[in-house]
Amino acid sequence: MATSMRGLTQFIADIRGARVRDLEEKRINKEMANIRKKFKDGNLDGYQKKKYVAKIIFTYILGYKVDVGHMEAVNLISSSKYSEKQIGYLAVTLLMHENSDFLRLVVNSIRKDLDGNNEIDNCLALHAIANVGGSEMAEALAEDVHRLLISPTSQTFVKKKAALTLLRLYRKHPDVIPATEWALRIVSIMDDPDLGVVICVTSLVMALAQDNLDAYAVCYTKAVDRLNRLVIEHEYAATYAYYKVPSPWLQVKLLRLLQYYPPSEDPSIRSVLHQVLQTIMNNSAESSRNVQHNNAQHAVLFEAIGLAIHLDTASPLVGTAAVLLARFISSKETNVRYLGLDTMAHLAARAESLEPIKRHQSTIILSLRDKDISVRRRALDLLYSMCDVDNSELIVGELLRYLKVADYALREEMVLKIAILTENAAGDHVGDEVWYRVVQIVTNTEDLQEYAAKVIFEHLKAPSTHESLVKVGGYILGEYGHLIANEPGYSPMEQFQVLHTKSQFCVASTRSLLLSTYIKWVNVFPEIKPQLLNIFERYRHVLDAELQQRACEFYALASRPDDDELLQNVCEEMPPFPPRVSALLGRLNMKHGDTEDKRTWIHGGKEANLDRDAIKRKAEGNSAVAGQLGNQDIMGSLAGLEISPSSPEVASLSPELPSFQPASDKAPRLTTGPNVDRWFDKLTYTAEGVLYEDDQLQIGVKSRYQGHLGQLAVYIGNKVSAPLTSFTTTIHISDPDALSVTFAKMPPSIVGPRTQTQQLLHVECKKMFSTPPILSVSYLAGSHQTIALRLPIVITKFFEHVKLGQADFFERWKLIGGPPREDQAIFPIDLNSAGQLDLAKHKQVVSGHRLNLLDDIDPNPNNLVAAGVLHMSVEGKVGCLLRLEPNREAKLCRLTLRSTSETVATEVRKLVQQPLKAES
């Protein structure tokens, strides 16, 4: 370019030769005046426009203000010559901001370059969008960028740039990107054979998944599979081995991505992931003198330890990690010490037991005096997270001693943390905070209120109780005592006697609260109103002003006429509490803030993280806290108040997030068609056959069952001469508590041309279910294909034959009786070609549903009688009896099912009826 544009070369030489700034400005002003004149005259060819725009760009880079050349740069973008187009795009990205009016003029030119077959033009357009792209450009071109990313004809380097461009647009304008709609297609590219593409797409998925966890849930399996291929199977090109560490950047991203999701419940995924983490930790034991190798190895290792902590803090992997971390916090390298302390703080924030960390308490305290301030910060965070009742005095004392000599940048944060730790360790002095937390959760959780009233009443019967327990009892019985008043042992008088006997040992503030409980009882328990008025009368003459005023007001309120509605309005039930956070913790969290990468934990120990999870779910609109709070948790917490108001049991009231399986809660849309339904219906009463078939794919199943357990082999055949790539199979179960279906091993990601792969599923029936699981299959074969099919796993698969004689059968038939434990249907049936009943098919269907055909039971030889027992691992065994009565003349059939469970009878009737009835 310098050779072909001599004017530009001379201009640059003149600028560099200027000895003072005045001479430089004079030369630039002269050149700008000449350029304006040339642009004004017009009639410039592409070469001249390119030359003058290049001079403008150089002037802008020197720091001078430029107000000319924008339109010419726009025109250059439309040029067919690469050198001119390149200068045009460079000028646009440098001279224009995202709200520039000129950008509207280049959108069509950029779209043309995105849609073209020239990879260089594609990349120039992507660069411009990523560097400048405002909301208008993002809205107009996001679809085109996405199309370049997913196109099978796009070159590798184009895909990488397209993924990073989408990432840039999403970070700047997330509302423009339809993240949920594009989820499956974007995640499928994580199986790309080129690791460079995978790294870029994983960065994009990390950003999208944080805000759309369910939509991108399938990335969990993809990440585990890719880690297995990298770490265990060593499936990577030599160019992606960085000092013998396979693609450490990709490993770190995948390990971090897995930490966004709760641990998978799939045993095959857990097994593979455990093996990967174990291999990473074993590899770290081999020390090397090569600094770059150690850096790459440590980067992967620390992220792997973070994932191991996230999965299960009680696993042997975390025990191994604790040993490694102890070695790292004493390392001579500053970065290693920093990462060791930070990861150990993660462990302290999640672990059930802090004993493995306390063993190294002295080393951690010494880190407060490290020469590097970042290490000192991490040591402070770790001490804050590992502080509990046992070591609080020592840690707070050390922090106070260090505060005198600490850096000014650390002092404010240290003071906050010392105050919080002192509050946590202060025992009875912060009782109000503790009992408020209990009251808040009970008030906000309707399903807990009756249970909590019973529990608090039983604990108040104890000879000695903590005053915080009396406060909890006064509040909860005052608000919800009426919920248990009609049950034996919980009458209004008994509630009053138990609570009032504790008042003489309480301070004035607690007795004031009990007076408020009594006025609530006046409203709901009129039978004990005389006793309550007597209490108000006595307290009207006490010396404490607060008690006296409260008693006088309550006495006057309770003595009003019965028809007065004022008492009812005053004593209405308390509304739910708003979320409450400690002011000190609020200030500390404001100091830390949120990073772009949403952390899955915070400093402050297990209780702080449980509180954070609860508040986060509350903010997301999930009010069903009761479903996550077990009775044992609330019982232990209320009982714990008798021991110490700062006991860890109180903190356990904050619920943990529920377990999660990496699959969206929303059932996929089923693939429909007459053949699909016919294939499924046949497989409900046969052990093997075709489940689905089209021009590209054939899916067959073969199954066997024993009791409540079963195995289902799914055979997937590729019928075309090209491989099916990014092959993904997932199982969706509507009720995981009733049915369990898991893969025996990780499904493959590629199905070769004209080959067949087998996937084995383990099945367990726990309870009664009516909706079969759904198998979702997605793959790339030119375009992205998705198929969702019902698996032929129905309740009758778990039946076992029962042999009964005629007398036994009809005795049980009568014993079960009619509705609701009977289900009956009359439906049309077809006759065979000879005009006779197709008894062979009837027998095949009934016996195929694993019901034992009983001969010589029914007087009519055309009738079928069968019996079976359903096996369930949780709900046990359920018997079922069947009678099938076909009528040849009417072409109708009566099907009757009787079972000790009405839901079983109904479901079996539906399953047997479907393949028997005539299509009309």
TrEMBL record:
GO annotation (BP), single: intracellular protein transport
Q: Where in the cell is it found?
A: Membrane, Coated pit
**Where does the UniProt entry say this protein principally localizes?**
membrane
Cite the binding residues for a 1,2-diacyl-sn-glycero-3-phospho-(1D-myo-inositol-3,4,5-trisphosphate): R6, G7, K38, Y47, K51, Y52, V53, A54, K55
From which organism does this entry originate? Hypsizygus marmoreus (White beech mushroom)
Q: Keyword annotations for this protein?
A: Coated pit, Endocytosis, Membrane, Protein transport, Transport
Matching SMART domains, A to Z?
Alpha_adaptinC2
User: Where is region (Disordered) located?
Assistant: 645-672
**Record-linked PANTHER family:** ADAPTIN, ALPHA/GAMMA/EPSILON
UniProt name for this protein: AP-2 complex subunit alpha
Give start and end of each Clathrin adaptor alpha/beta/gamma-adaptin appendage Ig-like subdomain domain: 681-792
Known function? Adaptins are components of the adaptor complexes which link clathrin to receptors in coated vesicles. Clathrin-associated protein complexes are believed to interact with the cytoplasmic tails of membrane proteins, leading to their selection and concentration.
**Family affiliation:** Belongs to the adaptor complexes large subunit family.
Top-rank taxon of the source lineage equals Eukaryota
The UniProt GO MF terms for this protein read:
clathrin adaptor activity
According to its record, how does it sit in the membrane? Peripheral membrane protein
Q: Which InterPro entries match?
A: Adaptor_Complx_Large_Subunit (IPR050840), AP2_complex_asu (IPR017104), ARM-like (IPR011989), ARM-type_fold (IPR016024), Clathrin/coatomer_adapt-like_N (IPR002553), Clathrin_a-adaptin_app_sub_C (IPR003164), Clathrin_a/b/g-adaptin_app_Ig (IPR008152), Clathrin_app_Ig-like_sf (IPR013041)
This protein's GO cellular component annotations are: AP-2 adaptor complex
